[in-house]
Amino acid sequence: xxxxxxxxxxxxxxxxxxxxxxxxxxxxxxxxxxxxxxxxxxxxxxxxxxxxxxxxxxxxxxxxxxxxxxxxxxxxxxxxxxxxxxxxxxxxxxxxxxxxxxxxxxxxxxxxxxxxxxxxxxxxxxxxxxxxxxxxxxxxxxxxxxxxxxxxxxxxxxxxxxxxxxxxxxxxxxxxxxxxxxxxxxxxxxxxxxxxxxxxxxxxxxxxxxxxxxxxxxxxxxxxxxxxxxxxxxxxxxxxxxxxxxxxxxxxxxxxxxxxxxxxxxxxxxxxxxxxxxxxxxxxxxxxxxxxxxxxxxxxxxxxxxxxxxxxxxxxxxxxxxxxxxxxxxxxxxxxxxxxxxxxxxxxxxxxxxxxxxxxxxxxxxxxxxxxxxxxxxxxxxxxxxxxxxxxxxxxxxxxxxxxxx
Length: 406
Fold this sequence. Notes:
Number of helices: 17
Order of helices and strands: HHHHHHHHHHHHHHHHH
Radius of gyration: 21 Å
Number of strands: 0
Structural class: mainly alpha
């Protein structure tokens, strides 16, 4: 079945809306992180107990990656997205009005589960875009996602200071409901060609991982990149307090420097559309390693710590978009399942990086933590270099000449 072609004028209206939806949906995963103290006081639990909300939200998101995202290859996408958003709105409303900590945790689990709608939105954007613009469009939508991640903590902190901690959940519930209605009206329908049972759909994700080396390779690169990203952002707040004596508000403002990395996504997407995906991947891996080295050796100077954040976010977004464009071209009918494998692997890398960072910072301090973080994209760079050299040799052989694919 030929891919759905959306007129350019319509696509220009749809893509910013999809970017907005991605940013607002993914932000739900991060609102609680700076609110643990007021949440603990409200429910009369310890801050350690309150931190379980972050764990459960992330677990819900992991479950959604496996259980909901593959449905993008089976269910009409507009209906799937708008219904998941309605579920998110209901879960957020339950979170805002939860009378007990147990109900708050249960609602937060559902918030995480349904926030994976963003991972249905991104493959849809790729499906709607023409081939020559696919990287650019995916990059624009991914920029919205990154801004949502980076701005969520700051917005929830400020709103909690002005109103109370429940206000952000109520506001987000209204936004999710509004998005559902707006997308229902403006999105074109996209009905996948696949006809299968739900069980077969889920099992096929494992089959794609086994049979598609490009998917495995790209997932590995991005897991290492997100691991490095998480090493930095999981510990930098502690470093800002201990070395630079910054307040909570100052830390929130510092986090905004990473927003500059959102500019990388559409730029790298256009480069990938022009056939430079392999090169931009190598540059991104090298840039991430350099960023963490700068942050490690220059951490006593706030400007160098910030420079490391900007370069790292720029590199991470660049490899993310390039990787997505590459895997979406393997099997167009399996883009949501490809995305499931890719993002789930990336998620494991990020979670591992956060855990690694927590132990390293407490035991060895910032410099060692950042240098270990730098080692992660370096491993990816070595693998990329070996692959690139082998592909170049193969291309020179008259017997077999295949594209690298990244």
